[in-house]
Amino acid sequence: MLRRGPAPLLGIDISSTTLKLVELDRARDGGYVLQHCAIEPLERGWVAEGNIEKFDEVAEALRRLVRKAGTRTKNVALALPGSAVITRKVHLPAGLSEDELEVQVEAEAAQLIPFPLAEVALDFCVVGPSSTAQGYDEVLVAASRKERVSDRQGLAEAAGLNPVIMDIEPYASRLVARRAIERLPKVGSRRLVALFEIGSQSTALQVIQDDDMVYERDQPIGGAMLTQAIARQYGLSPEEAEQKKKLGAGLPADYPQTVLQPYLETLGQELGRALQFFFTSTPHNRVDHILLSGGGASLPGLAEAVTAQTGFSASVLNPFDGMTVAPSIPAARLAVEATSYLIATGLALRRFVP
């Protein structure tokens, strides 16, 4: 009767432009509750291509983020970019003990990883019985250079936090997408859903089928392109243009037609091009739905523009859909920022979902 639930956990996403924090809880009815969330901007160059270049500055920004969120939780889940992690599924005999699995995984990893195991942080999990080899289990192996892991661990510790989970960004994104996919009409197995995460400099595509990623690709277009267009058109500094873009206010009356609509059309064309690469490199020739998230997905009219350019139905993925939101979180701020919390929400969900 006194059994305690999972310990509180912060999901913290480290990107090239911001730090983002999400903390979730569960209501008595089993639904999720958004307890805390916050975003802290980073200066250009502090984090580049997933590498922490200015450790002290980012650590101080992380301390500000935690204070801004108003949380007392210390345990955190972090993530590495997909490009920093090698993942493979291998088949190993079923029924092995944990120690036997470790030995077998290390032997497999030595064949898969192009650098010495002494330089590698290695982990694995048993996915389930193999569908192709009777008497074997399918095991997911993940490996990254130790310094990539230790940088993030050290960053959390420097901010007074306790790193307990190191995830992979695309896996955290898919955890949130799973909830959205379950709410789509005509739920069924083997459905293909394209998840686009629109960031500042690039857009990441994952095509998902039954929780598995069947394809991924980065497209070199993001929200920074719109910021630059606003700055050029109206003679603003990049900082002023970014602020006005996020607020969706303070721009001239011709902004929707002169700047925003051409950008949405270009973005839709680029996302369509990314899907064409998927179609030409796989047996598939369509997707059943497109989900749009990331910081660049909050623009009005985006889903309609993507549908028009690709021919497939699209919708914006709000990570907090279906959740109860704590009264302390301003609704107006959340309406602007929600799509930015995709990865941080997936990390926060690790408190409840292994």
Automatic annotation (TrEMBL):
One of its GO terms (biological process) is cell division. Keywords: Cell cycle, Cell division. Residues 9-177 form the SHS2 domain. PANTHER family: CELL DIVISION PROTEIN FTSA-RELATED, ETHANOLAMINE UTILIZATION PROTEIN EUTJ. Gene3D superfamilies: 3.30.1490.300, 3.30.420.40. This is Cell division protein FtsA. The keyword Cell cycle applies. The gene is ftsA_2. SMART domains: FtsA.
